[in-house]
Amino acid sequence: MTPALNVNKTPISEAEWQTRCDLAALYHVVNYLGWTDTINTHMSARVPDDPGTFLINRYGEMFEEITASSLIKIRLDGDMVGEPGKFDQDYYVGERGKFNRAGFAIHSSVYNARQDANCVMHTHTRAGAGVSLMAKGLRPISQDVMEVIDDVVYHHYGIPSSDDECEALGKSCAAGSCVVLLNHGLLTHGPTIHGALQRLYMLERACELELIARQLDEPPVLMDDAVIARAAHRMKTIRNTRNYGLLEWEGLVRTVERRGVDFRR
Question: Which of 126, 188, 125, 196 minimizes the C-alpha distance to 155?
C-alpha cells in the first residue's frame, strides 16, 4: 500500500513508492551478496515521475536496516526534499541525520550526464578494488567478462566531491555503463534497477576471475577477436532491453524475502 506521506511529511506518488521499495530491496540484495563496505557505499534510483530527483540511503544505516521509507529524496542540485539542512565539509546534515556528500557527487554526476540512467550502483568489493589497481585490468579471458567488456570504462581517481571530479566522472559514464573507478572500486548505471544490478554482477564476476587468473602459473587463454566482436554486438542489444537482468532480480528479491526481510515499510 502506498502511504499518503513519506517520513519527510511530503506527498509521495505510487511511482515513487514503488521505486523506494525496489531500491530498498536492492540494498538488501547487495547485503546478501556480500558487497557491502559497512556503511560506506551507496546505490540510488531516479524518481520516475520527478526525474530531477533521486533516492539514496541515509548515511549511517547498515544495508540490512534500510527500508523504503528510510531512503532520502534529493534534488540533482543538492537540496534534500522535505528536509531542511546544510552541507558541512563531508556531509549534508538534516533533521533525520546525514547523507554522504561524496555519494551525492557521484550519483548526481551520473544522472546529469546520462539521462537514460535510472539507477546507479557503487561498491568497494575486494575483487573490484583489486582490479581498480590496474590501468586496464580486465582482459577477454572469461565468459563473464564478455557480458560487459565492450562497455567497460576506466576512470582515473580524482579529488572526491570536487567540481572537476564530478565533470570527469560524468564524461566517463557517458562513455560506458560499467565503470572501473581506478584506485577505488566499481560503478554501474542502467535504465532499470535490475539492469544496473546485472551489469554490476557480471562486472564483479569478471573482476573475481581476472584476479584468480593473475595468480596462476601460466597465462590465460585469450578469446579470439571475432568472438569478442560478436559478443559485443549481442550484448549491446541485450543490455538496453527492459528485461535485462529481470529474472535474476526477481529471484534475488525472493531470496531476501525468504530471509524475513521487511523492506516495504
Answer: 188
